[in-house]
Amino acid sequence: MTTSPPPGCPAHAHPPLLPLIEATGAPDHRVVFRRLRDEHGPVVKVELEPGVAAWLVMGYRELLTVTRDERLFSHDARHWRDLNDGVVAPDSGLLPMMGWRPNLFQADGEEHRRLRRPVDEAIAGIDQRAIRREVEEMCADLIAGFSERGAADLISEYAQVIPTLALASLFGLDREGGQELRRALIALFGSQTDSQLGDRAFDQILVDLVQSRQDGPARHDVTSVIVRHESMTSLEERVQSLVPLIGAGNETMTSWIAHTLRLLLTDPRFSAQLRGGSLGVDDALDEALWREPPMNVMPARYALQDTELGGQKILEGDVVVLGLGAVVDDPMMQTGHGPVAEPGNRAHLAFAAGPHSCPARVPARVIVRTAVGTVLNLLPDMRLSIPAEELTWFPSPWTRVPTALPVEFSTVALNAPLARS
After folding, report:
1. Residue 216 φ then ψ, to 5°
2. With DSSP H G I counted as helix, E B as strand and the rest as coil, what are the percentages for the chain, rounded to 5?
3. pTM for the predicted model, two decimal places
4. How far apart are alpha carbons 335 and 169 in whole angstroms?
5. Confidence class of residue 337 from pLDDT cuts 50, 70 and 90?
6. Which of 42, 148, 214, 269 is deepest in the core (most CB within 10 A)?
7. CA dihedral sign of residues 249, 252, 255, 261
8. In the beta sheet, which residues pair with residue 402?
9. pLDDT digits (tens, 9 = 90+) for 356-387
10. What are phi and psi of 83, to 5 degrees?
């Protein structure tokens, strides 16, 4: 028989922290986030891995403070007290996502602006019409590959493949390199025991890619623009500048496609409006961002001094993670329709905020819009082949992607026009 700790026992004063991965992996994670908000307010301490804590920010106002005030919160993981004190083990699965790298994501101020310039210039040079046409062909090829079966998994056979192939093309990787990239990133974003192996494989792919651009003739791809930019000072900077673009870009587009298709297959209102044309593809993508941000929780910021946030005492060196999937339920984010915004409303925080907001949201939308529009047109009668409540999720404290979206269909409209927004 178990007994409760006696009154005054430290177990009452310091209850165990909720592991973050249990919140993001819960069948209804937003119920968990709402309970945390009701019990603790907009900022709560959670566990990233055994013995390693972080502050999860779930409030709209508090999240804007963290993302905009670089005097209080830095991106530089070298300020992380638990890492410096040895609390975070050298082989921790958190380090591929949270360890320091010399790139724009981990830099602040003028250093961040220097490292972001080549990225912004490279992205501005992307031919959006060309990438749309190329992605449309990729999508049609993938669908043709499983169309005769009358069934498919829209995660492993579609949502995970399109971003990898599209990014491989943009950055100058061939298809084999793109598949190697995908396997490495699945491990990296899991933040589990194989995370560091995935991280090393990912880095090696990027080292080989950068060296090929440095040593070979100039090419017209994103990698070449970044590698040859005057702001870049070393091989490591060039390699690490690609990390957030390819790594985060691949995972977030996979999640965005997956959740839009999941809503299409499981939400009758969403499906009826999208299939009936009253909800355009772009509006559907925005609703998916409101309801399921691609990065459910985004790492990380590090407190530069003791401060107060959401009623909690944050100490210098504490780590703060951004609960983008929780902030949608903050009353300040409500639009009168719950987390479902009016068409055209893009005031969500799915791309974060402040100087570190996502630099590639435009090409990402082109790729995701094309992927969703193509499958919507070519598989007009697709339906989920399992009950929605049986869907499961890849283990990750950061992203929330279904392990599978099994569908069945009887009609393949191979000559249908691409859905337009």
Report:
1. -105, -175
2. 55, 10, 35
3. 0.86
4. 38
5. low
6. 42
7. negative
8. 393
9. 777 788 899 999 999 999 999 999 999 999 99
10. -70, -45
